Amino acid sequence: MPRRSTGRVTLQDIAERVGVSKVTVSRCLREPQRVSETVRLRIEEAIEVLDYIPNRQAGALSSGRSLSVALLVPSISNSVFSEVQRGVDEGLREAGYQVLMGHTGYSILEEERLIDTFLAYGVDGFVLSSTRHTDHAQRLLNRAHLPVVETMELTDNPLDINVGLDQRVAGRAIGEALITAGYRRIGFCGARLDYRVQQRLAGWEDALKAAGLSTQRCQTTPRPSSYRLGGELLSAMLERWPDMDAVFCCNDDLAAGALFECQRRRLDVPGQLALAGFNGLDITDATWPTLTTVITPRRAIGEQAARLIVERLQGAPRNPSRHDMGFDIALRQST
Amino acid sequence: MPRRSTGRVTLQDIAERVGVSKVTVSRCLREPQRVSETVRLRIEEAIEVLDYIPNRQAGALSSGRSLSVALLVPSISNSVFSEVQRGVDEGLREAGYQVLMGHTGYSILEEERLIDTFLAYGVDGFVLSSTRHTDHAQRLLNRAHLPVVETMELTDNPLDINVGLDQRVAGRAIGEALITAGYRRIGFCGARLDYRVQQRLAGWEDALKAAGLSTQRCQTTPRPSSYRLGGELLSAMLERWPDMDAVFCCNDDLAAGALFECQRRRLDVPGQLALAGFNGLDITDATWPTLTTVITPRRAIGEQAARLIVERLQGAPRNPSRHDMGFDIALRQST
DNA sequence: ATGAAAGCGCTAACAT
DNA sequence: ATGTTAGCGCTTTCAT
Fold first, then answer.
1. Which of A45, A164, B163, B280 could form a disulfide with B323 if both were Cys (CB 3.0 to 4.6 A apart)?
2. Is the CB of A50 under 7 A from strand D?
3. Residue B53 to residue A231, Cβ atoms within 8 A
4. pLDDT tens per residue, range A103-150
5. Would you identify the CATH topology of the domain A66-165+299-327?
C-alpha cells in the first residue's frame, strides 16, 4: 500500500501545474539558463503561488551535498567566539552554504559527539575552534573526507586547514609589554585552563624568565571564567603577593572583573596595580580606566576559515596549511 | 546505469556483515528490544567495527521527522539570548532533538529567510525569540503545521505557544522602584528600539505619569546597543538634562557603559546619579557599584519553551497558550 | 530544451 | 522475531 505523501508541495506539484516534468523544474532551480524563458517564468510563478519550499533532505540525499557546514565553538555565551562565528557565517552564506552551529562546552568528548551528529546530518565541512580532539573524532573526520578548518590556535599537525594565532607568542608579547612599561612583579591569573590559556601562561613565563623575573605570582583555577571570578582571583593574589605591581589576566572577562575589584578596594589602576587582558572584547575599550589587552583577529579568522573551506567545497584539492593571523597589543590606560 | 554509491557505510553494509536484512538493523537502532539479543549484539559490534553513522537525511526523508528544532535568536553575541539558548538546548537534547540555531540580526525579514531555510531542512519545530514576524513568515509557519514557541515577550495573539514576560510591566516596575527610592527626575535611555525596548519605554512612561513626573528625559537611538553607546547616550543626556537624578537604561550593556562614563566623569553613583539596567546579566553583579536591574528569567524561559515544544512533538494536541514567566527587580548599589 | 528511469539510505506498512 | 515491498522528494544519467 502506498504511503500517503506528507502533504507538502513538491517539485511534482509545480511540474503538473506548469505542464512539464519535474526534472525541468529541478533544473530550473539549479541552472535557470538551461530552461527556456517561457517555461522558466511559468515555473517561477507556480513556485510563488504554491509557496514551494524545496526539500533539502531529499536534495542532499540525492546529490550527496547538503550545502551546510558545521561550526563548533566551545561556548555560545563567550563573545570571543561570536566574532569568529560572524566571519564564518558571512563568508559561507555568500557562497550559498548554511552554517549549523554547535557548542562543545570546552569538552572534546562533547565535540566528538557533535561531529558524529553533524556527520549524520550530512554536513559538507567542519569549522572547529581548537586543534585538540579525541582520537575517535579525528578518525571520523579523516574518514569523512570533508574539508576541516581548525581555528583560534596554531598547530604543527593540522588535520587539514588551520587558521589562528600563536597563543604562546601572544602571551609572551603582553608579558614583554608589561616589562617594557616598567613592571617587575607581574602576576598571571587564569581560569578554565584550556589549551589556549595554558599557552598564554607559557608565553607569560617565557617573557618573565627571559627578563630574569620571578614567575611565582600565578593564580589559576579550572573554574569557568566570569567577571566575578576575576575579582575573586585578584583578591586571592593580592593576599598572597601584596607586592604585585601588574597582572596579566588570561582573558578580558577576568581582567574586567579584576578591575571592578580594584575599584571596590579603591586600588588605583594603574597607579598601584596594572592590569592586562586578552582578546580585545568591547568592554576593554569602555571601562575606566580602559584595559590594555591583546587584540585577537577573531573576525578575520572566521572570514579566512570561510574563504578556505569554500575553496575546498568548490573543488580545490586538499592541501594542509597553516595560517597565522597574528595579533595586536593595545596599550591602554590600565598599564 | 546505476549511480555509484557514496562509499559511506550504510545499513545494508551492517546487515550483510551480520547476515540479516537491513530492516532488522534499522529496527535494532530504533527499538532494540524488538530484536533478539544475539542479533542485537552482533549488530552493535558491526556498527562499532565499521564506524557506522546513520544518514539522518535519509531517515528524515523516510519518516517525515528530522528530530531537529530550529531556534532563532536576534543576536549571537548578546548574552541575553545565550541563556535562553541553553535552556532550550538542554531540554531538547534530553528528548533526543538537535537544536539548529540561526540569528536574525533583529530583522524580521532575515527571520523569514531563516524560517524558509529551516523548513527546507525539515525541522520539526521552531523556537522564535519574538512575537513579531512578517506576514509571509506567519503563513509559512501556519502551513507547516509545526509546533512553534514565541519567546521573550508576551502577546495576546500567539501563533501557537508563547513563553515570556510582560516587558511593559517590567519597565513600569523598575520605574516605580526608582520613584519609591526617592528619585524624581528620571531619564530613560534606549538603543536599537526593537519591540521589547519600546515596551520597556512605555512601562517607564506609565510609572512616571502615574506619579505625576515628567517623561521628557528620554534619549533613544536606533543604533545597536553597546557599552560605549551607553556612555555616549549618558553624556548626551547629562548635557540636555543636567538636573537628572536617575536613568533607567533599556538594557544592562547600556547601564554598564553609563556607569563607566560616570566613573570617567567622577560622578558619584548613586550619590549624584542613580542607574538601572535590564536583564540581570552577570556584569550587573560584578561592577562597582553593582547595578540595579530587572532580572529576566531567561534560562527558565528556554527550559519552559523546550518542555512545551517536546510535549507537542510527542503528540500533544495544538493548544495555543501564553506563559508569563515573570521577573524580579534587583535593587543594588547603583540606586 | 526536455524527459524517463534509476537510485540516494532510510523507515512504514504489511507479511511471515 | 525477521523479511519484503514500496516509497519519501530529489538529482543524476542518459536519451530524445
1. B163
2. no
3. no
4. 999 999 999 999 999 999 999 999 999 999 999 999 999 999 999 999
5. Rossmann fold (3.40.50)
